[in-house]
């Protein structure tokens, strides 16, 4: 491994200045960057360690939602009461992220900025309508998570910019969300298909008011299945409607064949997992209607502890 400089900026401004120089890349948990350097996939001249900036870590409540610092570790999401009680889908996905050791190193910002098609944390952020705050020396701009992924390994972040935080709006009432991930092993493995979904129901629990479906590892980027969402919105929830939406999600996916799975198998599993996720999201939304949000959140939080 070639020799590199390591910088430890104390502020976002110092980090942005360092990252504006050619050959400099940000370093957080290093779970993706160090293997990439060792394999010769990238050859930076300078690593800018973002963990030396205290304002980039932690979870806090803000007006209208929850803000997560970009270098917050995945494992810390499982210990935070705001996440466990108000955003249980985030905890559910974090619980299945790699190993304990990996969760104690990897950061939420690093996971999505790596822009892998199988990025675990991208899917809950997509269905929860997250917005990203990106800092530069000139300004801080907001990016909708749906506009963040531009291609495999490519994001909307420009040179000299830093992902500072992720804000997730408070889920609307009568909303249920769920996630499913398919891999060769149950733990410590990348998904070869993953699906997340969030549904808001009407007050009587019979119709779908809004729908979000996100797919992972079946396209060049984590993606929203917008045609499948449109099938659900405004319609009475039935088994046939969910099956139709699941088939549409599979049709929207663009998987490839690789060592882990064929594109045909991935297509089929998108439909299967989407159907399961939507049924579970409906069940959870109706549980909120029957027993209140607090009951559902306590149940999911207890499972994630």
**First-residue to last-residue Cα separation:** 39 Å
Using the coordinates above, name the CATH class of the largest domain. Answer: Alpha Beta
The CATH topology of the largest domain is given as: Enolase-like, domain 1
CATH architecture classification of the largest domain: 2-Layer Sandwich
Strands, total number: 14
Shape: globular
Mean pLDDT equals 90
**Low-confidence runs:** none
Main structural class:
alpha+beta
Helix share, percent? 25-40%
Radius of gyration: 19 Å
Along the chain, the helix and strand elements come as EHEHEEEHHHHHHEEEEEEEEEHHHH
Number of folding domains?
Answer: 3
Largest sheet: 5 strands, antiparallel
- Beta-strand content bin: 15-25%
Instruction: Quickly count the helices.
Output: 12
Q: Kindly report the spatial arrangement of strands forming the biggest sheet.
A: 4-5-10-6-7
CATH superfamily of the largest domain: CO dehydrogenase flavoprotein, C-terminal domain
Brief rundown of the structure:
36% of the residues lie in helices and 23% in strands. It is globular, with a radius of gyration of 19 Å.
Structural commentary:
The protein is of the alpha+beta class and 305 residues long. The protein contains twelve helices and 14 strands. The chain has a five-stranded antiparallel beta sheet with strand order 4-5-10-6-7. Helix 5 packs parallel to helix 12 (293-304) and helix 11 (263-291) crosses helix 12. It is globular and about 60 Å long. It starts with a strand and ends with a helix.
């Amino acid at each position: 491994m070639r020799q590199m400089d390591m910088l430890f900026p104390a502020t976002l401004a110092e980090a942005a200045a360092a990252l504006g120089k050619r050959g400099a890349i940000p370093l957080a948990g290093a779970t993706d960057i160090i293997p990439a350097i060792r394999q010769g996939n990238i050859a930076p001249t300078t690593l800018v360690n973002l963990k030396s900036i205290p304002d980039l870590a932690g979870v806090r409540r803000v007006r209208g939602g929850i803000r997560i610092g970009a270098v917050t570790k995945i494992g810390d999401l499982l210990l935070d009461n705001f996440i466990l009680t108000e955003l249980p889908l985030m905890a559910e996905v974090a619980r299945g992220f790699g190993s304990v050791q990996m969760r104690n190193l990897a950061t939420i910002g690093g996971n999505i900025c790596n822009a892998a098609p199988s990025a675990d944390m991208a899917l809950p952020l997509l269905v929860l309508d997250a917005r990203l705050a990106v800092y530069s020396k000139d300004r801080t701009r907001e990016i909708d998570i749906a506009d963040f992924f531009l291609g495999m390994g490519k994001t909307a972040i420009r040179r000299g910019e830093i992902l500072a935080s992720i804000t997730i709006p408070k889920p609307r009432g009568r909303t249920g969300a769920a996630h499913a991930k398919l891999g060769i092993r149950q733990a410590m493995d990348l998904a070869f298909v993953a699906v997340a979904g969030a549904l808001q129901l009407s007050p009587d629990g019979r119709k779908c008011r809004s729908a979000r479906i996100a797919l992972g590892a079946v396209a060049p980027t984590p993606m929203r299945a917008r045609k499948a969402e449109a099938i659900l919105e405004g319609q009475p929830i039935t088994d046939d409607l969910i099956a139709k939406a699941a088939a549409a999600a599979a049709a929207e996916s663009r998987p490839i064949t690789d060592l882990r799975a064929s594109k045909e198998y991935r297509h089929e599993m998108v439909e299967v997992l989407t159907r399961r996720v939507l049924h579970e999201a409906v069940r959870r939304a109706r549980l909120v209607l029957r027993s209140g949000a607090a009951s559902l959140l306590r149940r999911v939080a207890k499972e994630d502890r």
